[in-house]
Design a protein that fits this description.
heterodimer, A: mainly alpha, Rna Polymerase Sigma Factor, Chain: A, about 65% helix, B: about 80 residues, mainly alpha, 4 helices, about 0% strand, elongated
């Protein structure tokens, strides 16, 4: 059987550089961190080149390495900026609910079921902006859960939090994101903005 | 009786694990009578679905994002690869 072609590192940057960069940007929201991780990915790939089995495509292999780098990056961030009490307070915006726990201003009608949103570049930009507005631990938890699709046990290890705390963090992240998208996107689309 | 505040928390939690039966029933009953919480749930699910699709097309190279590595970064990486 023919041995799989050996990867050719001199072509990597041109073939996969932008792809890996966008992959990292969607998860890190930070140009220079994303560039660094792409570089580290290629360097790790270079030294592990012989272990490339050829069973997967070269790009899948490189993304696999990048995923580990991203998890390491989140781990480092969680270590440097551990959770504070404020991160675990249940509601960032207590004014959403009255004392008995009922909505004061409930979610607005977003108009139909806008299922094609994911095709809209402007929505992507707005989403990234809203996500960047969250504290790093909240944004990273949301990213791992919803963009990467990791399970909660895995995320707890990366962010070094208990499962109960992770539920609170994800709840807050979703609540803040929902509100941000409502004000900055949906209410504008449906003309609810004053 | 669960309040809207409780229900929003449990709705999020139900996206990460399956809730114990009692809580699940409590949430479902609440959603039958509360328009706002029912809307909240639909919106969280829409966000989840949209983000998954965004990530999927992004990862499939047909990315919406126009960002690319700067020439400077590309050059730096090429050099680091050539002189490990």
């Amino acid at each position: 059987m023919a041995k799989p072609a050996n990867p050719d590192p001199s072509e990597w940057v041109d073939r996969y550089g932008d792809y890996l960069f966008r992959y990292a940007m969607l998860r890190l929201r930070d140009r220079s961190a994303a560039e660094d991780l792409v570089q580290e990915t290629f360097l790790s790939a270079l030294s592990a080149r012989d272990s490339f089995s050829g069973n997967s495509s070269e790009s899948t292999w490189l993304v696999g390495i990048l995923k580990h780098k991203i998890a390491d990056h989140f781990r480092r961030q969680a270590r440097e900026a551990p959770l504070v009490d404020n991160d675990l307070r249940e509601h960032p915006d207590p004014s959403s609910f009255d004392r008995s726990g009922h909505w004061t201003t409930g979610p607005t009608d977003w108009g139909g079921n806008p299922a094609d949103l994911y095709r809209e570049k402007k929505f992507l930009d707005q989403f990234m902006e809203c996500l960047s507005g969250l504290s790093p631990n909240h944004a990273n938890a949301f990213t791992l859960r919803e963009i990467e699709g990791s399970d909660t046990v895995e995320i707890c290890k990366v962010l070094n939090v208990s499962e109960t705390n992770l539920w609170v963090i994800l709840h807050r992240a979703r609540m803040q994101l929902r509100r941000c998208l409502e004000t900055r996107w949906f209410d504008r689309k449906t003309g609810k903005e004053p | 009786m669960l309040s809207c505040k409780d229900v929003t928390r449990l709705l999020s939690e139900s996206m990460d694990r399956s809730l114990p039966l009692g809580k699940r029933v409590g949430v479902r009953l609440h959603l039958l009578i509360c328009t706002f919480c029912a809307r909240y749930e639909r919106q969280l699910l829409l966000i989840r679905e949209t983000v998954r699709r965004l990530a999927a097309i992004d990862d499939a190279c047909g990315s919406l994002a126009e960002e690319s590595l700067s020439e400077k970064a590309k050059e730096r990486i090429r050099i680091s690869l050539a002189t490990p």
